[in-house]
Structures
1.
Amino acid sequence: MSHKIPKYKEIADEIWHQIQTGKLKAGDQVMTENELCEHYGVSRMTVRKALESLAAEGIVRRTAGKGTFVNSIRVEKSRAVVTSFSEDIRSAGMEPGSILVEYRTLRGSELPGAIAEELDVKPDELVHSVCRIRTADGLKVALNYTYIPCSILPALDTRMLEGSIYEYITKQYGLDICGGPLTNEAVLPTPEQKELLGIGDCALLQTSHPSYLADGRPFEYTITYYVNSRIVYTHNYPRRENRHHSWQYTGSR
């Protein structure tokens, strides 16, 4: 026997679909309560319940006297300062989190050629492979894949994978890590990524880059897929007189 979906949930799902497909973008205003009541032919109480359910998930924000707006996390980064995903989210006044999807060890021969080359690993060398969903106040904002040679980090405590890898490693091992060249690309999500992030056919911002130890050895290669409708990064460049310094970026750890 099928159960009828509550009307408020139908409305919430429709608004969420508009966000996923890009019809509503970060910062856009959702229809007013009156407009939603008229559009769906429902009571104000039903509309409020729909909007409140979306607000509780962090998808929209409600501002008294102004309306309801599509939410997005805005993070400002300096090109001259290395910060982790966790630090970025805390700077936006939110609590970072991680959901471990998969951890395993791979041989260099099992890695995509470009990653194996960046990490300078031989075909028979072992590499930590970690896939995690990154969250901000519980909202899924990114999917992160991290690869670390076992020769650099022989043991990896999987319990810390639900936090910041960067913070754990710098505190536990005292390693000085700096980021390498960053590559950005807009991509469509795979079916698996849609399921993991709870999204539709919305664009993802794919960022990828290596990281190095102070002595120049490759330490990590990371690929992160950000949900554009949920998080926005603003990069602040150093002032002109400081631009002779190379910028560093560590991405999502």
2.
Amino acid sequence: MPNPGTPKSMQQMQQQMPGMPKGTMIGMVLIMVIMLVVMSFRQQIGGALNVVFQFINFGGQWPVLTLIIAGLIMITLSTVIRGFLTDPIAQARSQQIQSAFNAEMRQARLENNLFKLKKLQEKQPEMMAQSMKASTDMMKIMPVTMVVVIPIYAWVWYFLDCGIVSTELLTINLPWGPQYIMDTLWVMPVWIIIYTLISLPIGQLENRIVRFILLRKRLKDLDGIEHKS
């Protein structure tokens, strides 16, 4: 094997890297199909969901608060679904192994330890395969979560665009000035950008909390099984 870091070495390593699994492609196709179906019937789906979500629209008086609550509901549901459909112990173990491997790789490069770096690079395709498997497992779950998430997006559009909120209240103050929430900024509607910015930090926090709770529960269950045996 050539010395680590040479173009020939990098080319060989890239050839050994695993390709994208079929499961990932199927998951992406399913997500696109769900998005197309829901967005094609977003008014009907939004109107149907409004029977339940009307309790958080506040008569259209506080649209930003409604977006925050809708984001909380969406993230909570998707996080709980992912939590119950994944193995928290396997996830934690995979992340720990990947983190330790990356730390060793950085240390070998800092020390210019070519022998150790060569050994780690030989193992890198295996680590990439494990990482790809974890991504594939998440992609398999994503269509299930999209069945919940995308209809909520359809309801938010229905809430903002179907006369529930007055036009005056749809103009909000952003750092660069007043902005009509239904306008398009770059290539996306402003309301989707705001909704996403609200959901992302909440989602990260909830994801960690749910994973911690499920991991602790799983460890207690395993501990109980060991004591019985």
3.
Amino acid sequence: MTHTTYRTNAPEETQAIAAELAQHLVGGEFIALIGDLGAGKTTFTQGLVAAIGSTARVKSPTFTVMNEYAVSSHPTIRRVVHCDFYRFTKAEELGALELDEYRRLDTVIVAEWPDALPMVAWEPTYTVTISHKDEHSRTITIEEGV
């Protein structure tokens, strides 16, 4: 297991860290995003999705629960699925998303609040933990295979 820690002071820096991670993705990955409200999970996802090759406007899935972004310019990834498990309390609720249908080699799944449901049986390919002390500064740790 490897991990790297970064410090950022602007949303663009957080997005650049995500773009670095995107260079290692080929499809089939499950990325767990851990962090408090306002930590920058969606900002990170914006950088990741753009770097993979989507022109979609990435928004927080807090209310929609799941957003899909089409990818047309990556050699192996065709979509990114961005989920938010914050409002979930039961495994049955998660089952209604039918996430297993999205577990494909041409798809990257990014999940905010994956620890809200310990019954998620997937091991993340990467766990990204984002913490913040103030409005601008972030500490981002990316762990592989956690």
